[in-house]
Specification:
mainly alpha
Length: 170
């Protein structure tokens, strides 16, 4: 008797839940508003840049800088993938060899360091170009946000290390 009553209650509650969810979905507009779509399409600044109160001219200049950077990156994508695949094969060959070829290892390390150096240079050049578009006040605000983000990262890292130590003892 209890099983029958419990089954009936569960079936009734399931029906009510499905009906309620269906009616909510039918009346809820899940499509983005026209303003949201406009902001996304016109390339409105997102992230830290959105908090700098940029003028339309500044936004256009920064957008051009970022598109130029993105264009360079997408044009070279296939070449970079081929280089990475070749480097991975060379690393695998070094790993599987009976003796370690230190000359080849040093060559690979130098190649990787050169690529990292180039990425670093390009990143700083982009940051510099963007900073030249900003006013001194905007640069100061950007620096403040960067410091806050780095501090938050350090705090998270410190919290994470403490969390890891707690779980190592288990």
């Amino acid at each position: 008797m209890k099983k029958l009553l419990l089954g009936s209650v569960l079936a009734a509650s399931s029906i009510f839940t499905v009906t309620a969810c269906t009616s909510v979905n039918a009346t809820t507009d899940t499509t983005p508003t026209a303003q949201m779509q406009k902001n996304h399409k016109d390339g409105a600044m997102r992230g830290p840049m959105s908090k700098l109160d940029l003028t339309a001219t500044q936004q256009a200049q920064i957008k051009a800088i970022m598109q130029n950077k993105r264009g360079d990156r997408t044009a070279d994508r296939a070449e970079h993938q081929a280089e990475r695949a070749q480097m991975d094969q060379q690393i695998q060959a070094l790993t599987n060899a009976s003796t370690l070829n230190t000359a080849a290892l040093n060559r690979l390390a130098d190649q990787r360091a050169a690529k990292e150096k180039q990425r670093f240079i390009e990143r700083v050049q982009t940051q510099h170009a963007i900073a030249q578009v900003l006013t001194p006040e905007q640069r100061a605000k950007m620096e403040q946000m960067k410091s806050e983000r780095q501090e938050k990262g350090r705090k998270h890292s410190k919290d994470r290390k403490g969390h890891d130590k707690q779980h190592q003892g288990m």
